[in-house]
Amino acid sequence: MKPEIEPIKKCSQTILAIHDVMDILNGKWKISIIACLCYKKMRYSELLREVKGISGRMLSRELKELEMNQLIIRNVLNTQPVTVEYEITEYGSTLKNLTNTIAEWGIKHRKRIIGK
Prior knowledge:
The structure is a single chain. This protein is 60% helix and 12% strand. The protein has five helices and three strands; from the N terminus they run ααβααββα. It has a three-stranded antiparallel sheet with strand order 1-3-2. The mean pLDDT is 92.
C-alpha cells in the first residue's frame, strides 16, 4: 500500500502547480500577449492589432494583471504624445518555451483535425 502513496502525492503536487499557472494565465488572451512580448517590446496599439479579436478594454485589463504578476513591464516614454510600451520581464520570458510548445501543439492539432 505504501508504494502507491508517492505517485498520488506527486499527482496532487502537479495538479496544484497547474492550477497555480492557470490562475495566473487564465482567460483567452494572456498567453497570446506573452507570446507577442517574448519577441519584442510593443506599444498598446501594436498589441491591439496583433492579438486578433481582443477588445481595448480587455487588453488593458489583461496587461494590468500581467504587470501585477511581474510578467511584463509597462514603460511610459517621455514623448509627445506620451507613448507606452510593454515588454516581457526576465521572469516572464521563462514562459517562452511554454508558449512555443503550445503553438507547436496547436499547429499539429490543426493539421490533424482540419488538415491545414
